[in-house]
Amino acid sequence: MGRKIAWGLLAFLVLSGLVFYVFAYQWPPVRDPALTMPDGDPAQGRQAIVKYGCSSCHVIPNVRQATGRVGPKLEDIGRQIYLAGVLPNTPDNMIRWIMHPREIAPLTAMPELDVSEQEARDIGAHLYGQGSVRQSRPGHGGSGGGHSPR
Ligand code: HEC
């Protein structure tokens, strides 16, 4: 009788330990999801990126013209922690930065481009990788030359 209780207790401890482990360490591991921009249209964003010439200063996935190296590459920015090293990367801050970079970082080389809020939202959706093949196919092609995204 006492043995039965002991075994039961042991089983309970092992099981609850397992459950705790799964929750505490997220096992099996899950990839942290990239940020997403609510109400942003990535296709419109892509057009706005070309229209405002973001492409002349930034490398941006799925925008062929975007090979500029004045500013940082914007690949995988949905997983970056800070924007421009000063703003926590959130959808709202992404919009703020795109609309008014100089209000946030007065010395930045990134110009005020008079981007509307909806356009900034759409651009953000594109930059966060929404609606792109990248999302369903993790791992980018590296710098391997000659691969032209549409
Ligand atoms: C004249 C060049 C230039 C243009 C045009 C430009 N940027 Fe930038 N951008 C920069 C520079 C330089 C930085 C780095 C800012 C800093 O760290 O202070 C930057 C930073 C950024 C960042 C933060 C990147 C990071 O890694 O933290 C985002 C997002 C961004 N730009 C988006 C845009 C978008 C969208 C447009 C078009 C509306 C645009 N930029 C147009 C030069 C430019």
Please tell me about this protein's structure:
With 150 residues, the chain is mainly α. The chain has six helices and two strands; from the N terminus they run ααββαααα. The chain has helices spanning 2-25, 42-52, 91-99, 101-104, 117-127, 133-136; strands at 82-83, 87-88. Strands 1-2 form a two-stranded antiparallel sheet. The model is unreliable at 134-148 (pLDDT under 50). Bound molecules: heme C. The site of heme C has 26 residues, from helix 3 and helix 5.
Order of helices and strands: HHEEHHHH
Q: What global shape is seen?
A: elongated
Based on DSSP secondary structure assignment, what is the total number of beta strands? 2
- The rounded distance between the terminal residues' Cα atoms is 72 Å
Largest sheet: 2 strands, antiparallel
Number of helices: 6
Strand arrangement, major sheet: 1-2
Overall number of structural domains: 2
Name the CATH homologous superfamily of the largest domain: Cupredoxins -  blue copper proteins
Distinct bound molecules: heme C
Summarize the topology.
Layout: H1 2-25, H2 42-52, E1 82-83, E2 87-88, H3 91-99, H4 101-104, H5 117-127, H6 133-136
Antiparallel strand pairs: 1-2
Bound molecules: heme C.
